[in-house]
Amino acid sequence: GPAEPATKDSERIVKLPATAAEIDCPEVDIFDGGATARVGGPDSQSVRYQFDITDVARQCDPQGRMFALKIGVAGRLLIGPAGSPGAYSSTVHIVVKREADGKAIYEKNVSVAANTEGAAQAPFRIVTDPVLLPLTRAHLDDDYSITVGLGGGKAATTRRSHHRR
Fold it and tell me: In terms of C-beta density within 10 A (0-12 exposed, 13-18 middle, 19 or more buried), how is residue 61 classed?
């Protein structure tokens, strides 16, 4: 009844989502300018090659009080008028932020490579290893944001340098 002391939040039993279908996985956004990485001169005739992101995906699998997040990025390598077919690489920058304070809790640069094998274009596809993050609630899209883009991400300037001897 009303005389009972209010239970602390930490003592309340919350039914944790058990399947991926029970949680709203955050959408993957592409950061401004991150959909394309172009190499070559400023005008289109001098482009040697470019990488385009054509599709993004994500999967959230609950694991007790954590969830495993996998992020996928697919796209293509296009050979430009000034380029020649072959193997090229670029970098996809991936950031997962906590909405509460805007803090990046996962950040990774993933190398992508494609070989056109003599053709004008070739596909690429990467999927990250699962990242374990706290399962805050079913509406994970309210608590986390995922952003990806080509070109290594200008936001990575805060990286500390590690000196190895």
Answer: middle
